[in-house]
Amino acid sequence: MTPRRDxxxxxxxxxxxxxxxxxxxxxxxxxxxxxxxxGVHEYYYPGGEESVRTLSPSTGEECPYPGLRAFGRxxxxxxxxxxxxxxxxxxxxxxxxxxxxxxxxxxxxxxxKSSLLQAGVLPALAAGRLPGSRHWPQLLLTPTADPLxxxxxxxxxxxxxxxxxxTEAVQSSPGSLGxxxxxxxxxxxxxxxxxxxxxxxxxxxxxxxxxxxxxFVDALDGLACGRDPAVLAVYGLRADFYGSCAExxxxxxxxxxxxxxxxxxxxxxxxxxxxxxxxxxxxxVGRELVGTVVRDLRGSARQEEGGxxxxxxxxxxxxxxxxxxxxxxxxxxxxSYRDTGGIDGAVAATAENEFGKLSPSERQTARLLFLGLVRxxxxxxxxxxxxxxxxxxxxxxxxxxxxxxxxxxTRARLLTQGAERENGAVTVEVTHEALLWAWPRLRQDWIGxxxxxxxxxxxxxxxxxxxxxxxxKDTSALYRGTKLELARAWEAGASPEDxxxxxxxxxxxxxxxxxRGRRIRSGAVASVTALALLASVLAVFAFEQSRNALVQRNNxxxxxxxxxxxxxxxxxxxxxxxxxLVAYRMRPTPALRTQLMTxxxxxxxxxxxxxxxxxxxxxxxxxxxxxxxxxxxQIWDTSDPARPVPLVSALSxxxxxxxxxxxxxxxxxxxxxxxxxxxxxxxxxxxxxxxALSDSVQTSKGAVTSLxxxxxxxxxxxxxxxxxxxxxxxSVQLWSVADPRHPSLLGTVPSVRGQALMAVAFxxxxxxxxxxxxxxxxxxRRTGLLQLWDVSDPARPxxxxxxxxxxxxxxxxVAFxxxKRVMASxxxxxxxxxWDVSDPxxxxxxxxxxxxxGADSVAFxxxAGLLATADQSGNVSLWNVGSPSQTRAIGPPxxxxxxxxxxxxxxxxxxxxASGGGDGRVLLWRLPPTLAVAGGGQSVNAVAVTGDGRxxxxxxxxxxxLWDVSDPxxxxxxxxxxxxxxTVNAVAFRPGSSGTTVLATGGGSMPSGGDNGAVRLWxxxxxxxxxxxxxxxxxxLQPVFALAFDAxxxxxxxxxxxxxxxxxxxxxxWDVSDPxxxxxxxxxxxxRRMPIRGLAAAPGGGYLFAANVFGRLQVWRTGSKAVxxxxxxxxxxxxxxxxxxxPDARLVATGGTDSKVRLWxxxxxxxPTVLGEPLSAGGIVTSVGFTPDGALLASGDALGQIRLWDLxxxxxxxxxxxxxxxxxxxxxxxxFSSQGEMITGGDDGTVRLWQTxxxxxxxxxxxxxxxxxxxxxxxxxxxxxxxxxxxxGG
Length: 1290
Description:
Keywords: Repeat, WD repeat
Helix content: 25-40%
Pfam families: nSTAND1, WD40
Strand order of the largest sheet: 6-7-8-5-9
WD repeats: 804-845, 857-889, 894-927, 1136-1170, 1181-1207, 1220-1251
Low-confidence stretches: 1-25, 27-60, 300-306, 524-529, 531-535, 1005-1011
Protein name: WD40 repeat protein
Oligomer: single chain
Domain Novel STAND NTPase: 64-474
Number of helices: 25
């Protein structure tokens, strides 16, 4: 809003124009203008372009925010912030009227597309914003699994025509459909009906009938196009299905000619969406709340970009609804917002809160319910799924519990219940797909923990439901053959909860039917073969008896070992890896080879010998020794994490129960805090012979729960906690240990009765002390306590303001990162908050991490790049915290503990993490040397390797780092290019042996418009000191997404893509034969200016291959200083997102948003041809690559999986082994080095080296797991009949 001018201020020449229709009125006063029309007030102020719309106040207690669901057509009065976008859509609709064309609104999931259409565009048309639109009938529909029925039903209801007549026209005569609609609605000559097809992507996700898809699109074409169209059509499409429309001319033309891209809201629009619904409800909104919401929504996006990550709007709406539910009187406050979890945690907090209210049996019902409401596609992609309540009841283990559980989550707006048009059956679905990734329990514990099993169970359940609906009489519905074998394997490892009565009955019936068939077949042939068989058996009996027994024994052992490995994998990955090595030695199958590849890149634990009771604390000294507080204090040598050795069995400390331990920064001192409140200092400069320096000093009546040395080792801070008959109290004391033989009290952090102070942490400079715990609220409930204190004078601690808000339950632990900018706090509210404490007077929450249970512990790695968290379920998680405002999980939770984990610590190298839990176990988690975290904490967008396989370039956010990969078993950092002002999306090394190593980089766009899509060259011959080779290459480019040098390194090509307002892009090339004097080779090479992501160069022969997102593949010929010339082109039939060329330049692989990989024979570049059928990959295929020998193809996807394909016969490529897992999120880039290692980078900000050589895999796994296979475990899990022969030696 433009500020009002003072009446005395000279207004100058200001013209104000306004108009009001019907009974509207225009008022003007002192240069301001007000238009009143139908309860809507528009205010115009001179000096600015914006107007402000207000509405009549609401009455009642209606929540002004929709939560996860979209705004409906009847909620336009609450829909704010998208006025400019609604206007843009209406502007684009006018030429659509003239052109007889539909308009497509394209948006990523979670950007408010449905709300825009339902509460913005349709009400605007109904209000007459286009000429005549006030009188146009409106129809809103989604395709569903049966798009033809949905369209026929909707048109029948709209027109009043007989539904059978409409169905006939939809099915067989789409050309006459427009006439039918026009006649029944009696539309005037220029009149139209409005047809909005929202969630058009359902045509591809739910509808499995390809002919039905085409008939549906033909029907839309008949309605919206032609000489006399009956409807003005608007389609809402999720952006990741943009390319799926390529094979439908009607949809392709709509996307090319008439589209609106839904981008992020500006900060002002977000403020409007937050404030104005509340004001209409008579609520006040605190300014601090609005500012915090805007910052939280933006997350890691820079302020000047004014944007935020796609998908966050539903989280905002849910957070606002949760805040409204916790409002204080008539005010929405920052405290209510933080108490409910904010944008990042509100959905998870709501889901966990509802889940926590369920009984144990209801929790199992909820798990099966939500798993039944997601669809795991054939390629592993996860989408929501609409089910009828009748089917859910039939498939449930406890049908009586389903209604109550469904109602609970429906009231929380996490599920939505509706009714089918055709028969009125009640349906249930997840309200928004944001829940699928915002609720960790659903994403990680339920879906992620067994994705392949869920897909099998899902198909099995659907078959069982069909069998049930047929009265259990249709034997053709039963499983047989491979399907039955797969189901039997799943059944053997399934949990009892998954084996519901219906599934169990279906499988039992399938088994009976198979046995009956076998008996019939065997009886028919028995009499014919009996004599011949008997003679044969007698002839060879003696020889076969011995051989068969050995084969059967080995088969049984192999089956047992692989089954035990699968059983151990979720909780004991180290033993599972050893069992897999045993099985691979027995039978080296592709499945085991790929399983071992995954395990070689996993974070696996080594257990220290067990301790009785709880492990309260773990601490590493600067020399790498590990101290444990487990009732007795012990010290361990962990220099080899696979073989930890006790240096001291227990410190000589009387009968004191050691609860907390801490090393001084120099490592010479070890402090021990006792359960009796005592403190003692030890000299551990000789770790094998510790010496007590001080007596045991009594400091409090309660246990010392947390103990930390200041960075200069002169001050010791600790918290002491007492719980007497429910009266919890605590204190924090600071002691001088300048003379460790005589520790003395310096000061005490002020506390009040009812405060339970649990943990302390010093900032790296020693000036700030963080104190955490809980405070009594006057009832049985306690709330979190977290406060920062100035301890620059330890004798006089001074608070930096009041307690920090954010946690809603006890704050169990707190830690500072070594760079002192970041702090993490772990709360019993199942959240870890990541704080920006660069100014300790004004801490700000940067990220909220939602865990599956109460968070008990946090620890930072020495380089500040990793954060470890642990919770009460026993899970340990690793997070990339290089960008604190966008903290990313690295892989799935680490499972090894069976109860709460209250102690975490990194060793000085940052490669080993120690965890201690209530199960009495201390685990050492070793990060494999093949795993590296890219600097800056951003997604890894691209990697490239030099031809000799020794130097790796990694593009992550605005940074490009250089790594030594000459040793294929580890990644070693070497240097970095200067930071960029743009996101770097592409890197490529120039081939050849000129003596200079040249790296090309290509980036995205800057908000200011500078260096938009700039391509630059760098001399990285000395990786520690890279040097720019001249300025950016000439030419105006859109943001660059791929780079490729031709085979001789003389031509460099760059592909670009831009998606603001509409998709555009292109292809450019330069002569770089002299990198210091690059020259543009023509301008835009592709006149279509289509967005291009797929780009690759043939290793020999001078050819480039490029494919745009609409599926057009083109071959270009390059030559010395010559403009690349087009050679051939074809339509791939898929939206291409990635591309690779085989080493012999005979094959091209394309990966697309259709979750398919296609192979092309380009041995004749003038006439490329398709090879075989498309290969089903795991989700959107974001990266592809060939092994150096061309024997295997690899594809990376948006689900974090990497699949391998056997190319022995490229026309009949087959899956090779199991998908490789490890990345958390999209695998954006994939590259094979000349030595054969596969290098990948992903959305989790990590780079990983995957070993394709089984001997190297064996060496890596033996280095970390060799002690796991003991003689007793060999007998238990392998065989007591085989001599002890562990795979890594004795």
